[in-house]
Amino acid sequence: MTMDLSLFVFPASPLAIVIAAIFGLLIGSFLNVVIYRVPKMMQRESDNYIAFESDKPVPHSDRFNLLVPRSACPHCGHGITAFENIPVLSYLLLGGKCSKCKAVIPLRYPLIELFTGILSALVVWRFGAGAKGLSALAFTYFLIALTFIDADTQLLPDDLTYPLLWCGLLFNLNGTYVTLHDAVIGAIAGYLSLWTIYWLFKLTTGKEGMGYGDFKLLAALGAWFGWVMLPVIILLSSVVGAVVGIGLIVFTKRGRDNPIPFGPYLAAAGIIALFYGRPLQQALFGLLY
To answer: What is the mean pLDDT of the chain?
Structure first.
């Protein structure tokens, strides 16, 4: 016997939307930690493994995860207090500078908090405050973290892509977005489609056009929205990538040979598919047929 998640649907009242926005600001602050620390955690694990295999002392023996050590200014080591950690507001009150050494705090931190808060409000407005709304929030938070990690490091960590994939299958056990059958095929087709493109491109040019993390991310999107949505997601990510890529070349003089991570464009396509996937899918297949 399975539980029907459709029973847990609550309308998006104005209060629920406001609460979602505030909650999103708090989650955005945590996502800043995830974006900064997860790549460092991966590097530390890699360094320790290499040292262990070489019978050398491990270089990182201190605890370093998403909870410890406490967040601190990277310039002077000043521990960030609770007052200095209020999303967006603390940045404004501090004038965008460390309270001790006056080093500039990157603007991206409050922008990520604000962006997460706005998206959270939109998700609850669109999907309500029930099970579907909560699942959509989790989906959104995963994609925000993956977007900025990939933009910074050109990495899509398995620690995030695999849970995103499994969550998609879990929420579709009862057809929250698509049937479980379509979700499983979507995960398989998502991975294999980019895997095939990767090898065709590599065999043709001798270069790697994307990383394995992109395969896993598209597999996760397929697990959430099913195989039928994959053409829409791939088309959307290509359009977003083309627009952003041209913009970077024109306005920042970025060279055409400089690698541009594909993960953020897949993530953007995933967010668009979350809100407008069904009409876009109907429009696409209407044009084809």
So the answer is: 89
| C-alpha to C-alpha distance for 138 and 167, rounded to whole angstroms | 9
* Nearest residue to 220 via CA among 175, 270, 178: 270
DSSP string across 132-189: HHHHHHHHHHHHHHHHHHHHHHS---HHHHHHHHHHHHHHTTTTSSS-HHHHHHHHHH
According to DSSP, residue 7 is labeled G
At 159-208, the pLDDT tens digits run 999 999 999 999 999 999 999 999 999 999 999 999 998 898 888 888 87
Q: How far apart are CA 168 and CA 166, in angstroms?
A: 5
Cα–Cα distance, 63 to 43 (Å, whole number)? 14
Backbone Cα Rg of the chain: 21
Tokens of 170: 């879990």
Residue 96 phi, psi (nearest 5) = 70, 25
* pLDDT-flagged residues of the chain (< 70): 1-11, 253-259, 287-289
Q: Do residues 87 and 117 lie in contact, with contact meaning Cβ atoms separated by under 8 Å? A: yes
Hey, what amino acid is at 104?
V
Q: Tell me the one-letter amino acid at 270.
A: G
Q: Which residues pair with 79 in a beta bridge?
A: 72
Peptide bond connecting 69 to the previous residue in cis, omega within 30 degrees of 0: yes
CA dist 113 and 106 (Å) reads 12
Residue type at 198 in one-letter notation = Y
Three-class secondary structure of residue 284 per DSSP: helix
Q: Which of 215, 201, 214 lies closest to 260, judged by CA?
A: 214
Q: Give dist(CA 247, CA 66) in Å, integer.
A: 34
Residue with tokens 């050109």: 154
> CB of 281 within 8 A of CB of 228?
yes
